[in-house]
Amino acid sequence: MSLNAKKAKLSDSEITIDMTETVPAIHETSKSWDERISQTSIAHGEKQQFVSLVIYSLGIFCCYLVYGFIQEGITRGDYDGERFTFSQALVFVQCVINAIFAKAMIVFLTKPEQDKTPKPLYAACAFCYMGAMVASNHALLYIAYPKQVLGKACKPIPVMILGVLLAHKRYPIAKYFCVLMIVLGVAGFMYKDGKDTGDSAGLVSLGFGEILLLVSLTLDGLTGVTQERMRAHHFTNHHYMMHNVNLWSCFLLGAALLITGEGSQFVQFVMKHPKVVTHLAMFSVMSALGQHFIFLTVVTFGPLTCSVITTTRKFFTILFSVLIFQNPMNTRQWLSTALVFTGLGLDSIYGKSLKPKLKISQKE
């Protein structure tokens, strides 16, 4: 019995040893299988994201290319000897179509959960958004479209200034170099060769149109601050954001149109020149579709990717505007344009990677 007991004990010990050696092997095999499945899922997800990125990029390019043509055609066109000077009414019509489009997307397509974003935050965002658009569109009455587009491409400048002053942010050295390139490019583009030897010769042109651009850029920066607060603190759906911001803009612009009397003048102009209705409709539809693709890009891929896409789009907008509307640009302005877009491109590529990374603890 003693010998049998020892054999049984030894057998039990061997079984125990075999099991302790087999379980880790099974665990490693299961882990390896899970990793393969995860890698396959990641590869499939990346392919889907690439397809979505291409679609969104083409949507932004096409919509805003047509948008730019129609915008310049409206603001600089000839309507039987008259010009369209109703910048507030132009933005009002655009906001109405944008709000209707976003509401239709919410009701019939996306159907997101109930929105919990505070209404005053929407109102503040709408005021900045509306003011930026009005100032930008009104600037076209005093400056050429390529200069307006190039100026609006300088959003990193107000973002940096407002980030430092309001959010107490700190930026890497490379960020300041990129912004410096943008500022130098804009200054070179706005520089006007003076034929006279007066005091104005050799100075950067800063007329009423350029001042409106600066106001528009500042309000663009404030718009970005409010929108980031919505995303970070209230997880606002992109179509809710698009709908409510444009809806509040309609209220504010409607009051402004009544107070200034521009609304009645706009109606009289449309009745006198009904062909402008077609231009306004096409302009508003392109605006709504363009905003849709931009919000999709921001939510899906982040503002960095969207910045790269819109920056590239602005270059082609300037190029086609120069070719079609024959806005003159000299060699210095083309070199300044290249400098601006180089700075924007470097900022878009390296800006995010230069930010400090969070340390993630791993459990062994």
TrEMBL record:
It is found in: Endoplasmic reticulum membrane. It is a multi-pass membrane protein. Pfam families: UAA (PF08449). The chain crosses the membrane at residues 50-70, 90-109, 121-143, 149-166, 173-191, 203-225, 245-261, 281-304. GO terms for cellular component: endoplasmic reticulum membrane; Golgi membrane. GO terms for biological process: UDP-galactose transmembrane transport. Belongs to the nucleotide-sugar transporter family. SLC35B subfamily. One of its GO terms (molecular function) is UDP-glucose transmembrane transporter activity. It comes from the Eukaryota. It comes from Ciona intestinalis (Transparent sea squirt). Its main location: endoplasmic reticulum. This is Solute carrier family 35 member B1.
